[in-house]
Design a protein that fits this description.
Helices cover about 10% and strands about 40% of the residues. The chain is mainly beta. The protein is elongated. About 15% of the residues are buried.
Length: about 160
């Protein structure tokens, strides 16, 4: 689940009359609820709470659910993952060009991005040669350890 999507959902619930929102996807369930005091002390702004828990297994099968979805990446695609928790940056500076774009050819040791952790800028390098197929993370967003950042079509 994308962290930005969760943040957007929280903002939608926070800025609306909705007091509770639930969402299930595959093996994840998200529940966002606002604390609401209907008394005179409703001066404090209510803060949404997010609860993430594995979804219970369902035995009910609907016709639309019977489609098989291919989840395995083709064998010639390689994921480049974040080695640390931090903030992902595509360029060395806000006004600079990104290190790589979709379609660029890369080789082992090519700098692909920066992940900032505790005010340290860590250059993330490619471990394979190939072509950038997809950039999986938006610029200036948080990334987790081992989170895929790029898809590379290996040569």
């Amino acid at each position: 689940m994308d962290l930005n999507l969760i943040k957007k959902l929280i903002r939608v619930v926070e800025n609306s009359e909705i007091t509770e929102f639930s969402f299930s996807q595959a093996d994840m369930k998200i529940k966002i609820s606002k604390n609401s005091n209907n008394g005179a002390q409703n001066l404090v702004h209510s803060v949404p709470q997010v609860v993430q828990q594995p979804a219970a297994a369902s035995t009910e099968v609907k016709p639309s659910d019977s489609k098989q979805i291919e989840t395995a990446a083709p064998s010639n695609l390689h994921e480049i993952k974040s080695p640390i928790v931090g903030t992902f940056y595509r360029a060395p500076a806000p006004d600079a060009d990104p290190y790589v774009q979709v379609g660029d050819s890369i080789s082992p040791g090519s700098v692909l991005c920066i992940v900032e952790a505790m005010k340290l800028m860590n250059e993330i390098e490619s471990d394979v040669s190939g072509k950038i197929v997809k950039i999986l993370v938006e610029n200036a967003t948080p990334v987790e350890y081992n989170q895929p950042l790029f898809l590379v079509e290996k040569n």
